[in-house]
Amino acid sequence: MDRPAHVDGQVAGLVLAAGAGRRYGRPKAPVLIDGERLVDRAVRNLRDGGCAPVLVVLGAWVGDVPGARVVVNDEWEEGMGSSLRAGLRAVDAHEDVQSVVVTLVDLPGLTPEAVRRLVDSYAALAAATYAGKRGHPVRFARDHWAAIIEVARADEGARGYLRGRPDIELIEVGDVASGQDLDEPGE
Predict the structure, then answer these.
(1) What band does 72 get if pLDDT is binned at 50, 70 and 90?
(2) Which among 94, 180, 91, 92 is positioned nearest to 131, based on CA atoms?
(3) Does residue 112 have a cis bond before it (omega within 30 degrees)?
(4) Is the bond into 53 cis (omega within 30 degrees of 0)?
(5) Cα–Cα distance between 130 and 132 in angstroms, integer?
(6) Helix (H) or strand (E) holding 71
(7) Is the confidence at residue 185, as pLDDT, over 80?
(8) Which of 23, 43, 93, 156 is deepest in the core (most CB within 10 A)?
């Protein structure tokens, strides 16, 4: 039996960081946590977890992000769905990439070890879980990108596409990472 292409191809990393951070009071990408911008922390976690190349979707805030290719989402106000679409379209240009690990910029407790578990998965669809509760990052094989782009709207992202799918592998990472997001200043 042939191995699926997504197992042998490169795994890209994609950081969704275009939002305005309304509840937070400003865009989260440039926010410093322990002297490191959230966007740089997310890129480092993906890179150290085995993703290459790494792309970052920006919008409300745009700046340089060393170690990543910046994709500017001019439709960022529509919500996370537009950023996911923009990011997947940009990753699609990398023909050697067969799978992508997608994370959000506001997960300061994410670690390279958690990312590595998704990178090492043979599943075409995978999601991190924290004590059994689904979260980010998620992994999509190339053959799912077009369908995800079709349904990614508003702040739903790929949730509707993944809901109820029996073929998604749930990968527990709560022992090496935290899935808590940063929603308000002081968290």
Answers:
(1) very high
(2) 180
(3) no
(4) yes
(5) 5
(6) strand 69-72
(7) no
(8) 43
Neighbour tally for 173: CB within 10 Å: 24
The owner of tokens 């749930």 is 170
Using 50, 70 and 90 to split pLDDT, how confident is the model at 80?
Answer: very high
pLDDT at 41 over 60: yes
Would you tell me which CATH number, out of the four given (3.40.50.1110, 3.90.550.10, 3.40.50.720, 3.20.20.70), belongs to the domain 5-172?
A: 3.90.550.10
Structural domain boundaries in the chain: 5-172
Average pLDDT over residues 168-173: 97
**Of the candidates 97, 72, 92, which has an alpha carbon nearest to the alpha carbon of residue 82?**
72
Q: Quick one: tokens of 45?
A: 């976690």
Chain-centre distance for alpha carbon 149 = 14
Q: Which residues of 52-69 are buried (b: 16+ CB within 10 A; e: fewer)?
A: ebbbbbbbbbbeebeebe
How many CB atoms are located within 10 Å of the residue 132 CB? 8
The order of strands in the sheet holding 168-172 is 69-72, 54-58, 10-16, 97-104, 133-141, 125-130, 168-172
Which DSSP symbol is given to 40? Answer: H
